[in-house]
């Protein structure tokens, strides 16, 4: 993008806590809100008309804000929080970290569907981290007992076909995955219900008294440049076409190595029609979800990668499944990715390492 995204903030700008006291999310910069709505309209991945936007310090903060907003004090038991395994490893950790009396982690949503009772919150992560699948809620509708949080961090065209504009009660997105700016710590929620948006904003007010305005302004700038390019078709290669091409190339090379050494297997993803590109396309998740081919359930694939080729993955057991699975990020820079493939290509047997 060269200098197109550069912005200058002078020493006297953006000093106040407040952005707009007339709105529910009073610490959200109006430019940020506008940019978020515009980006969703350009991509077509979420319904934003007549919806509330809440900004957070990453979607991590918004997850906690949503748990707070969906529960209320005084219940006999904490509300069960579930997600279908393999689930994003941070959900159990974030849910139980403060030992809230309002909610508690209750594990795999499939198990809860079979045996669980009482009020619950299901987190639906689509496309799913770690395995890249597009998902729907698992627990059968139980009237008023169940609430949903849709974590759509990876629902962007470089990772997945955009199959419909998502339209759920609470949807969270993040600057970390849409453009890769994880260091800015910016996320946002698209919320249908005013009271839920108000409670989520209150949580953020109580925990961090707002969200960095510098970061919100930078995010607005970058999103604006991306959208302007789509409006004018100015660039040689537009942002999501470029990033999708990078992901496609990485996946092609990864599959070649994995097929060649026959030690691990990768999920196969069906092609789906993408409304954004107008083509049938394959998903290119941000992670390689590797499964050891050897039958033995005991195999610890994280240990194998670490021991044999000094690559740090995250074990399946952190995602609620067997340790023969391991997740490796594919979103590193080119040099690290090349190193990963080079080393992976040297493994030809799990039992004796090399
Ligand atoms: N949800 C999912 C599924 C993620 O993979 C991540 C980041 N790894 C997050 C949420 C949190 O992202 P952030 O706090 O950077 O917005």
UniProtKB/TrEMBL annotation:
Key word Nucleotide-binding present: no
Taxon lineage: Eukaryota, Viridiplantae, Streptophyta, Embryophyta, Tracheophyta
Keyword Zinc: no
Subunit structure: Homodimer.
Source superkingdom: Eukaryota
Entry keywords, A to Z: Pyridoxal phosphate
A GO biological process held by the record: amino acid metabolic process
Domain Alliinase C-terminal: 2-347
Similarity annotation: Belongs to the alliinase family.
InterPro entries named among the record's database cross-references: Alliinase_C, Ethylene_sulfur-biosynth, PyrdxlP-dep_Trfase, PyrdxlP-dep_Trfase_major, PyrdxlP-dep_Trfase_small
Residue intervals passing through the bilayer: none
Protein name per its UniProtKB record: Alliinase C-terminal domain-containing protein
One of the record's GO molecular function terms: carbon-sulfur lyase activity
Pfam families for the chain: Alliinase_C (PF04864)
